[in-house]
Design a protein that fits this description.
Layout lengths: L29 H5 L4 H26 L9 H13 L3 E4 L8 E7 L5 E7 L12 H22 L3 E8 L7 H7 L8 E3 L10 E4 L4 E10 L15 H15 L8 E9 L2 E10 L2 H22 L2 E6 L10 H15 L2 E4 L10 H7 L2 E2 L7 H6 L3 H23 L1 H15 L3
Parallel strand pairs: 3-4, 3-5, 5-12, 6-11
Antiparallel strand pairs: 1-2, 2-4, 7-9, 7-10, 8-9
Length: 419
Amino acid sequence: MHKSYCDFGIPTSKDARYDEKLEPLPQYTLADLEEIYKPEVIQTIDEALDKLSPELRKLSLDIHDHPEIGFQEKHAHAALTAFMSAHGFTVTKHYLGLDTAWRAEWSTGTGGRTLGVNSEMDALPGIGHACGHNLIAICGVGVALAVKAAMEMHDVSGKIVLLGTPAEEGGAGKAILIERGGYKDMDVCLMSHPGPGPNHSIGIGPSLAVQSIEIEFFGHTAHASAAPWEGVNALDAAFLAYSNVAVLRQQIKPTHRVHGVIRVIPDYTKMLWLVRAPTYAELEVLRERVKACFSAAAQATGCRMTLALGAAQFDLRQNSVLAHTYGKIMGAQYDWTTTMAEGAIGGSTDFGNVTYAIPTEPNGGNHTPGFTASARTKEAHELCLTVAKGLAALGFRVLDNEGFASEVKKAWKKDMEKK
């Protein structure tokens, strides 16, 4: 059974977060953030990505035409690592024990900050790249290479780390990489996600935290007519569990979601449930209430039950400083409109786990067969590169301007105080 949390589309140990020892810096004002930072740098970025566009288009179509589901992205792994190596990055394949994860890094000068960028690669079963991960992959590549060009041209020290992250669609690849220290040295991490809506528009907003729960009820068969009392009915347990959750829904908040599916054979049932809430703290409370529904069903029917929790995906939290600045860049430089969403979108993503570890700024998306075709069009490619230009300009400012980087981290720390 394939699990997909990203319907559009943990907190880790302290050492997985960035170094919190920051020197005091001047306070930034909104007026400072309104200014377009170094237009000459944006020109360098634009020229670099325009030059790379044919290569990136070829790479995108290659990934799109070879769709691979989570943790099986071997073709994408090979294509992307070869591409980054050819462009001067030091590449680590099979990163941190994940066969299809990879890391590409490049640095120059002494000291400086580290800019993280994400490239997703996995497709959906049966409908391929219906969430546009081929575009996410080349957007990450484009951001990394454009920032590299800007750092070289304008003599800025620092490091770029591009992570190829597998299995966003239900496998929580980023959560695994966070737990293994994959994001430890990043100051910020950037990612974009394609989605529906008007052209030349951007949506910036949170997503829901999600927890998968897999339950198995084990009974044993008996003759339905001769000795039904000797049976233990696993279907009854599943039915009661489903009914218990249905009743629970009357008492949960409108922003919370619980939904599940059932597989049945006579003496065995298996259920897969997804529990969602606007924040991870709320998710933890709701998850325990849902688990109690399953335990009660097992006790009432006499079935043996096993329960397994999947990797949690945290709510995605946009960094307010990065989001505001990115919107300003896209509006002033490329004439795009930006919508700042207050409430969470319906889906969830393992990039939410990254936002709990370091400051981030991604964009939205959805799953339909039509989106698969759209993800390989020339128009989608051109829009993707414009998004990459804005993200590259944003990332360069983090590397180049210490005051701005400090404000980003302050905003992140303040947001992490919220439950």
